[in-house]
Structure formats: structure tokens, C-alpha cells
Amino acid sequence: MTTFISFRKPIFLICACLYLLSGFLQSCKEDELVLQNLVLEMEDDINAFPGISAAGETKTFGIICSTQWTVESNKSWCIVSPTAGTGNGSVTVIIESTEEPTTRTAFIKVKAANLIGEITVTQEGTELGVSTSAIANVSAGGTVTSFDITTTAAWTITSSATWCSVIPESGTGDRSITVMVEPTTEAVERSATLVIVAGAHTDYVTVTQEGATVELSTNLIEAVSAGTTTTVTLTANTPWTASSNQTGWCHVTPSSGSGNGILTITVDPNTSITTRTATITVVAGALSGIITVNQERIYNRLSDSLALVDIYNAVGMEDATTGKWDLNAPLPVSGTSTDWTGVRINAQGRVDSIVVAASVIPATVTNAYLPESIGDLTELRWLAWAGNATSRLTGPIPDGIGKLTKLIRLTLTTHAFTGSIPDGIGNLTEMINISMANSTITGAVPASIGNLTKLTDINLSGTGITSLPIEMGNCVNMVNFMCFGTQLTSLPEIFGNWTKIGTIMLNGTSSLTGPLPASMGSLTHAFTSVFMYNCSFTGTIPASWANLNCNTLRIEGNKLSGEIPAEVKTCPKWASWFALPAATPNVGAYICPQQAGFGFTNCN
What are the pLDDT digits (tens) for 429-441? Predict the structure, then answer.
């Protein structure tokens, strides 16, 4: 649409007057300017093109005139065409785009003789808006995302990193920008900067990509000889591959993937008497994870025979004078044989019992020990190997003991063992009886012993054990608990659930301090004895002990003091507390006498 532009009002009035005078004056010169009704579609007093976009626009205006005229712009970015004419005409104004952030102004002048008209052109400056300043925590697996730019100008986008690209890289005006982030296999985080330039404006978008990670729920699989199938959780944020170095018997699926997954590892049966190992390798670029698969060998009559030979050599039995095994004699099909003293064979031809007298190990053998291969006797139910002052096993109790999961009785008394009871003892959940009395084991009894819920008898007396775990309270079938003469320093509350207990013996443990265990007060069933004398217990008798129902209670020779609780002293079970018939044991002698400087205030 053509816009008709009016000159300033004084010029308009002059033109009007000239028009009126022309009717009366016939001698008007031919080159006088006659501009008629130069008007806008807007108000007559507005001679302007305001609010021109920074992207540029094209405008037109009309001229009504009876003579020659010229048009000129004072700015090169504001182009008029034509620049001259005669009579009525139309002028095109081309306002070029701008990259400046501020508003700019141009003036267009129309001249006819001595008359001048002026149009003001106002062009807005450029703008730049970015919908986000950061694209953070992009997965290592890569992504396609976007952000928006808002501008009136032409723009370009450049990336500081080749792994982060944009589409498009240039344009004009508002646009949604696609950002493509490639996968990474590096463990460290990386970032790229997108630089947006629109005219004189510059803005930035930071793209941050996480480092690649590969985590496995386990790095070790212990497979039984019969074979197994195990699943391992894989946590990753990048593509990965998985492979086995022993594809003949250890298989992994799937072999590849991206992101989190589940690996299924299948181990075929092992029919040899040799353990074997495979490695599952998970690779994600520069990262890798390893799963070690150990498979036990098959345990059979042959492996039992080899284990017996190991024991023969380890304990110095070749020098034995009694009970010596004959390596040249075959194992019996079942039962026992005089050629293999103390060895019993079950109906399947496997060793299920070894009971050896102390005299088997000659006094001249000073380094006899139990080999790790004792754990290969997987059908063993009873292992009893006694020692004495001159015929003793040395070294640590082997971890292989923890493989004898069918063992119900373990007797290793009077030996010169070093170290503590191995944690694998907790695997022997069929165990009923443990005796290591007078052996030189030391340290803490492992918490895993709490797994032995079938255990009825334990004898660690005369050893160097220093502590008992609270988990021992889980041995709810305990009948005989003997830990006297040890190096225990404190006593946890382990007795509350021992409702089958018959004998508790902790006497003669001078290092045993702290209060008497209140949990014993819950033992209301009738049982035999509690021996806690000649220790270093402090405090008084717990009030809960009024419920204690044992035939013999001995707590003399400790560091007990204060008052005996009234409920204990007046309990019917204590009717003969002070005065007893001559034929009755003196209860007072078992309770009241304490170490020098200690004692109860109300014994009399």
C-alpha cells in the first residue's frame, strides 16, 4: 500500500494558498511547485516510519506534485528509489537490516522548488535471547536436545568441541536450535561452549556431559563343580561389550548393550579334579570391569585320596609309630580299615570321618600342620584330631575348614595353633559340637559363629581368645558353654535366648571384667550350673537373677560390691542363703567372698 506523506503544516498552508491564488493569477510561472493533499493514511501531522524491525523492511510513500521533485536520504542504510521525478509519483524506501544493538534514525527529504517535506525513519536495534544458558548432565551415551534463540538479526552459532554440534549453524530471526552430543567413552566429565553471535550481541550455552561409568554388582563368582547360572547387574551410561576368556565352559549374555543391563553368566559343570578360573570382561571405551569366575573342582573318591595324602605329609605321619596310614593300601569301599586308622568311608565311597589319637604325631615332628586341602573332604562329618604336650599341630587353622559344610563335630584340642578361629567357621551350619580346648588360638571369635544355630556344645577353655561376638546369642540350642581360663576381657549379653543351656563355665578368667550379664535372668528353666568365679566382674548381682534356676551358682572371687538386691536375697530358691545344714554346700561361700577390697554389704 502506498502511503501519502504530508509535509510540515506551514508548507501545507503555503501549498493551499498557492492553489487558491492560481485561480486568480494567470501569470504563474510554469516551474512553480504545486503539492496537493500530501497526506498519510495516519494522522496528517505524523510524517514518519517508526518501529522498523532490525531485520529491515521496505516502505513506500506517494507524492502529488505538478512540477519536478527530488528525494534523498541522509543514511546509506536507508535507500530511496527513485530519487527524482515530475508530477505525481511513488517512492520506495528500503531499510536495510542492522546488527547494532541500539535504535538508529534516518531522514528522507522531498524537495520541490523551494518547498521541503521530511520523513523520519526509526529502526530498532537488534535483540538476542537464549532459552537456556546450560545443558547439564548429558548422559555419556550422548543425546539430541535443543534450545531456542530469539533475535531480530542474522546469527551464527559455533561450538568449541567437535563432539557437540548444532543444526542450523546460522540463520535470521527466531529459531529452535538442535544440539547433538556424541557418546563418550572417557571416565571424566567434559564440556563444550556454544557461542551465539547476533549482530553486536553474543551469548553462550554450556553443554556438560557426564563421564562414562561402568559398575558391576559383583566382581567375583564362586561356582560349584556342578555348574551354576548367575546374574550380575551392570550399571552403565554408555555402550558396552561383555566377553568371556573361557568360552568353552563360561558363557556371558548379552555380549553388548548400552546403558544399564543384566548379564547372565552360565558356568558348565566341572568334571575334573582341578579348579578353574574364567574372566568376564566388560568394556565401555576406555573403561572396563572384570568379573572373576572361580569354579571348584569335582569332589570325589579321587580328591579325597589326594587330600589324605596331603594330610599324611603335612602332619609327619611317615614318622608315626602308631596309627600310621599305609599309602600303598587302597581306601576301603566303605567302613574302616586298619591300613587307614581313624578314617571312615561312607556308602558312596567318600571320607566322612577322621578320628586320630594324639600319639599319631611323633614328638620329633615340630612343624606338623593341617593343610588347606582338608577342605576337599567335602563329605566329612566328624574331624577329631587331639594333641598333647609333645604331639601337636602348629600353624593356623586352615581356611579350608570352612568348606566342610557337612561337618557336625570338630575336635582340635591341645594344639599349638597360631592366629584366630577362621571366619569360615560360620559356613558349618550343621555343626553341633566344637572343642578347641587348650589350643593356643588367640583373638576374637568371629561373628559368623552366630550362624551355627544347631550348635549345642562349645569348649574354648584354656585358649587365648579375647572376645565373644554378640551374634553368639543366636546359638539358641546351646547346652554346654565352656570358656574358662581364657583371655576374655568382657562378656556380651548372649544368654537371653539360651533356653536349653545346662552349663556355663567362665571361671578362672581373671581378665574378664564388667558387670554380670543381666540377660541370664531370663534362664528360668532348671539347669545345672553357672561358674563365673575367680574372674574380675564388678557391680552387684543383677536383680533379674532372682529368676535364675540352676543347681549351682558360683560367683565368688570377683570384684563384686554393693548390696545384693532384695528380690535376689529373698527369692525362695535362696532360702538357705546363710544358714545351711552341714551336709549342704555352703551357698554363702560360693557367692559372698570376693577379692580383697571388695564384697557385698548385706551378706550377714
Answer: 999 999 999 999 9
142 dihedral zone (left: phi>0; alpha: psi -120 to 50; beta): left
Q: pLDDT-based confidence at 572, cuts 50/70/90?
A: low
State the residue for C-alpha cell 564384697: 599
Q: Locate 309 and state its grid cell.
A: 595324602
List C-alpha distances in Å: 125 to 47, 148, 200.
21, 20, 10
pLDDT interval class at 448 (50, 70, 90): very high
Return the exposure string of 518-534: e unless at least 16 CB atoms fall within 10 Å of the residue's CB, then b: bbbbebeeebeebbbbb
Residue 578 is placed in which grid cell? 546363710
What does the CA dihedral 224, 229, 230, 231 come to, rounded to 10 degrees?
170
Contact of 225 with 299, CB cutoff 8 Å? yes
Record the cell numbers describing residue 144, joined without a space.
539430541
pLDDT given at position 322: 82
**Residue-wise pLDDT tens digits, 286-334:** 788 999 999 988 889 999 999 999 999 999 888 887 888 999 999 999 9
> How large is the average pLDDT for residues 404-429?
96
Partner residues linked to 345 by β-bridges: 335, 351
Enter the C-alpha cell of residue 134: 546450560
Residue 32 vs residues 28, 67, 110, 391, 514: alpha-carbon distances, Å = 7, 7, 15, 144, 127
Measured distance CA(453)–CA(478) in Å, rounded: 8
- In a 13 Å sphere around the CA of 346, the CA atoms on its Cβ side amount to 14
Q: Look up residue 35 and give its three cell numbers.
A: 503539492
Q: What is the DSSP string of 416-457?
A: EEES---GGGGG-TT--EEE-TT---EEEPPGGGGG-TT--E
CA–CA distance, 151 with 135 (Å, rounded to integer): 20
User: What pLDDT digit, counting tens, does each position of 195-212 carry?
Assistant: 999 877 889 999 999 888
Radius of gyration (C-alpha) of the chain in whole angstroms: 51
C-alpha cell at 26: 494567470
| Residue pair 117/5 in contact by the 8 Å Cβ criterion | yes
Q: What angle do CA 311, 315, 317 make, to 5 degrees?
A: 90
Spell out the residues 6+ positions from residue 219 whose beta carbon is closer than 8 angstroms to its own.
289, 290, 291, 292
- Residue 162 CB neighbours (<10 A): 8
- Region of residue 51 (left: phi > 0; alpha: psi -120 to 50; beta: else): left
